[in-house]
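Follow-up to my earlier ticket, as requested here are the two runs.
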Amino acid sequence: MSGLKPIGPAMTNPDMVLTIVISCYNDRDLVEDCLRSIYQNPPSAVYEIILVDDASADGTSEMVRATFPEVRLMRNDVNRHYAHSNNRAMDEARGRYVLLLNSDTVVLPNALDGMIAFLREHPEAGMVGCKVLNEDGSIQWTVKALPNPGAAIFGARSLVTKLFPNNRFSRHNLLHIGQDMTQPFVAGYVSGAASMMPLTVMKEVGHLDVNLFYHVDADYCKRITDVGYKCYYLPTSTIIHLNHKGGTMLNLRARYRSLMGFEIQSYRYYRKHIQRSSWSWMNIVVALGLFFHFLVLASAQACVEVIGIARALSRPKASVGAQTSGE
């Protein structure tokens, strides 16, 4: 954990049970929906919300001040990205439990109470994640084994998994497949879209790793496990995650940069948690494997982009044709 800072001392408040931490960037409408969902489906215990606006230029801070004055608002002068922003809020947390919540989520009834109750009843739990749904109600693949070389072939992004999701290798990586979704179970890691931990565990583990983004949740769960706790998945608490509808994935360049960033940070995770030696030949094998994986994903993304362009171009023609036939 070299270079990672410990959590700073928090202001004490014996009555504060939950601190909800949200960081955001240029997604004002999503932030508003997220905050409204919390107030519509709040925990029964005393709670606070800390929101860090990561130098948004869309009026997010102004909206929060005007519409949700009770939210503890922080604003970065420059864009510092996810881990920096969350670390800043984590230093200020006063609740006995801390929930890291993405800004593009919608909290459903009883989700927060369920997670709090689980942590109270399971002192061995260092973190608990909940069931995460897509906008259409399908389950997001958010509970997984810790990153490993096999995930490139049988992970959530794999074509093999998308075509044959019930194979035993994909089940090893995507832990919700074949599970009793009425009972909690131990996970390798759970999605940072909505993950809750005791404040004491958070202080013991320290800050999120600012050198990671795509694997920051896996890294944190690995570090929680390394100090002797377990990470759990709680399928009876549910949120909706409007995946990648925020301000960072809205253009073609950003999407391809995201694909490359995923591979680079996969290698950083490998070097941090899996690598046995700085001089091992496996380092070259892993790097080449990740580069090949990038080429496959980039090719698939190109097909998606071409299909999207073709559909967009076909819409005006269909409209003109409809007008002509109706005359």
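Run two:
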Amino acid sequence: MRYALALVALGLVGCAARLVPAEAGSFRSPRLKAAAEHVLVLQNQDAGQPTEVLGVIDVHEPTGGQSAALETMKERAALLGADAVIGVEFHHEGADAPKNIETHLSGLAVRNRPVLADKPYNVLGQVEVDAEMGREQEGMDQLREKAGSMGADVLVDVQFQHGEGGGEKTHLRGIAIKYR
């Protein structure tokens, strides 16, 4: 009986999804480090040219780790192929805050690329979703899916408001566009 169970277990393992290799400290690649050095970090919601949103970057470092948080943000953006991180919010402890509050940076990773074609379109409406802290990329995917279910060709003016502690969610929104 044990032998039969072992064969069943081995059979199930054979049907499982293929594991994708992962590397700790994957920012060690010289090419990636070089790309990260060129990523702009902007507080503005606009990079000054047309961009495509690639994802949300959310970095937490121990208190006082502003430089490390900034480097990690740029490295994560470079991993996505971003040229900039826009709408960057910086949070850290104040003079009266407890010492265990983290340095926290968040923003939208973008690539310089026009998404909105130069042709007539209709605005289908605003699309909004809330995402759990730490699951902002899932929220971005949900935002795109929601726009797609409306029949949108493009999602523009994507913005986010990062939730503050206490379980508050991150809010993502954009405008769904359909070409005529």
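The only thing I checked on run two: Helices lie at 2-15, 30-37, 66-79, 136-149. Let me know what else you need.
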